[in-house]
Specification:
29% of the residues lie in helices and 22% in strands. It contains four helices and nine strands.
Length: 196
């Protein structure tokens, strides 16, 4: 009887764990997963070039052009085309601490007032919504010398603004359909414009 028990245990061999196929899978899977990771967020903004058609005063409000003429010293908002709504002058530039940035001279550096631009566009949007007009397009008229960061800041300022809704900060829509155009050498103002 004792011999038989010994014989049964002798027949059992220790089972080995073969993980070669699992390691091969991991060697292939880890680089593939790393390649699929998103390391940076890229935002794509679709821009439309404005048409060359000239709108008449008989066109409905939603067809009138809302334009921002960028100059070296100000931002000029026109709505409808040719009627000046407001001129927003440049303001002194500040650093992260709120201290004015000073250029090589004694005068502080100036930058466009994007907050003032957003405030004016909010009023335009509210006025249009009060008339049941949901206008979404805007034209930025830029001189050739406009730097890249100014263009991006203008697009961001005209598309949306931060608003608090039910204790959450959200992006509220202004004019998300942005078109770019070259600033004309001379802009024709119409006689009965809005207040400056």
């Amino acid at each position: 009887m004792i011999g038989r028990r010994h014989g049964r245990t002798a027949k059992k061999e220790d089972a080995e764990l073969d993980i070669t196929s699992f390691m091969n899978l991991m060697i292939v899977l880890v680089p593939v997963l790393l390649m699929m990771m998103v390391f940076s967020r890229i935002t794509v903004v679709e821009l439309r070039l404005p048409g060359i058609e000239v709108l008449s005063a008989d066109d409905p409000v939603e067809d009138q052009r809302l334009e921002i003429l960028v100059s070296d010293d100000s931002l000029n908002i026109f709505f409808p085309q040719g009627y000046l709504v407001k001129t927003i002058a440049k303001i002194p530039a500040v650093d992260e601490d709120g201290e004015p940035l000073v250029s090589t001279g004694a005068e502080p550096e100036l930058q466009h007032d994007f907050t003032g631009l957003q405030d004016t566009l909010k009023l335009v949007k509210q006025t249009l919504l009060a008339k049941d007009v949901d206008k979404k397009d805007i034209i930025l008229m830029l001189p050739d010398t406009t730097d890249y960061q100014t263009i991006i800041s203008l697009i961001d300022s005209t598309r949306s603004y931060k608003a608090v809704v039910a204790t959450s900060v959200v992006d509220a829509e202004l004019f998300p359909e942005v078109s770019l155009a070259e600033a004309p050498a001379r802009y024709e103002l119409k006689s009965a414009g809005g207040a400056q």
